[in-house]
TrEMBL record:
Residues 104-299 form the ATP-grasp domain. Binds 2 magnesium or manganese ions per subunit. Mg(2+) 2 binds at E266, N268. It holds the Pfam family Dala_Dala_lig_C. This is D-alanine--D-alanine ligase. Keywords: ATP-binding, Cell shape, Cell wall biogenesis/degradation, Cytoplasm, Ligase, Magnesium, Manganese, Metal-binding, Nucleotide-binding, Peptidoglycan synthesis. Cell wall formation. Its cofactor is Mn(2+); Mg(2+). Mg(2+) 1 binds at D253, E266. The gene is ddl.
Length: 302
């Protein structure tokens, strides 16, 4: 039994719209922790989590909750109050990374490349916003992950419908220009930037189904960028990660615009750890097994 971590609580599942993904991530992490000989208790986080946590007598928490309630700083704040060390980013970084609107505003403010955007509301001028953003846009809830609530729009009517769909998940909805791609993702682990991954999806865009269930989505790792271009991408992603104040581990998503420039999409502070997930894929390319990756993430909490 691995004693250095004490009793570890693995929080997974939860009540967000990403519950299904979190259950898969948690199961994979749980197997790895057992393989390592860690004294782990797997906890499917429900509304009574804060009342039940003290009863488990934990020394450390591994967070495998995706989306609101687990990845947005609220859980991190509660664990700080309980004086329980936990994996991943802290309160502010988690909240900021989850809020795509304010994260993009900050990146614009400090000069990091991210596309223009519109904050959509019920009385938005759909035609004017669509024209300003180039005629084709991606609409997304500002505080969801896993592409939940996202859709494309190319007419004012489609834009209004996309806003109505996205607003079911979050009151803040943003639209961004539809970029041609390709799409890249870069994992960061203890300050080390792992090899980038290029994502090629047959879907209209890299949506929830393509991310977690489709065997048609292709991942190239290494991503076949030139050495200088890979260095440019890795430097940008580390800047983005650090600018939000992230720590431990995470993943930065990027797309290429019509001019061939990298544009930051978002930072994920608790990325997926499923069979289709990207951080384990990047770790493998860097010579780390899944179990070794999990141990590095866990060690970061100490």
């Amino acid at each position: 039994m691995s004693q250095q971590y004490g009793r570890v609580g693995l929080l997974y599942g939860g009540t967000s719209s990403e519950r299904e993904v979190s259950l898969m991530s948690g199961q994979a992490i749980h197997r790895a922790l057992l393989n390592m000989g860690v004294d782990v208790v797997a906890i499917d986080a429900d509304d009574n989590l804060l009342q039940s946590l003290p009863g488990h007598q934990l020394d450390l928490v591994f967070i495998a909750l995706h989306g609101p309630g687990g990845e947005d700083g609220t859980l991190q704040g509660a664990l700080e109050y309980l004086k329980l060390p936990y994996t991943g980013s802290g309160v502010l970084a988690s909240a900021l990374a989850m809020d795509k609107l304010r994260c993009k505003q900050m990146w614009q403010g400090i000069g990091l490349p991210t596309t223009d955007f519109a904050l959509l509301e019920a009385d938005s001028d759909w035609s004017a916003e669509l024209q300003r953003l180039g005629g084709q846009v991606m609409v997304k809830p500002a505080a969801e992950g896993s592409s939940i609530g996202m859709s494309c729009a190319a007419t004012p009517e489609q834009l209004q419908a996309a806003w109505a769909d996205a607003s079911q998940y979050n009151t803040a909805v943003i639209a961004e220009p539809l970029l041609p791609g390709p799409e890249y993702t870069v994992a960061i682990l203890d300050g080390q930037v792992l090899p980038s991954i290029r994502i090629e999806s047959n879907a209209e865009f890299y949506d929830y189904q393509a991310k977690y269930f489709s065997d048609q989505t292709q991942y190239l790792c290494p991503s076949e960028l030139s050495e200088s271009r890979e260095q440019e991408l890795q430097t940008l992603c580390l800047q983005a990660f650090d600018s939000v104040g992230c720590r431990g581990w995470g993943r930065v998503d990027v797309m290429v615009d019509h001019q061939g420039q990298f544009q930051l999409l978002e930072v994920n502070t608790v990325p997926g750890m499923t069979s289709h997930s990207l951080v384990p894929m990047a770790a493998k390319a860097a010579g780390l097994s899944f179990d070794q990756l999990v141990e590095k993430i866990l060690a970061g909490a100490l």
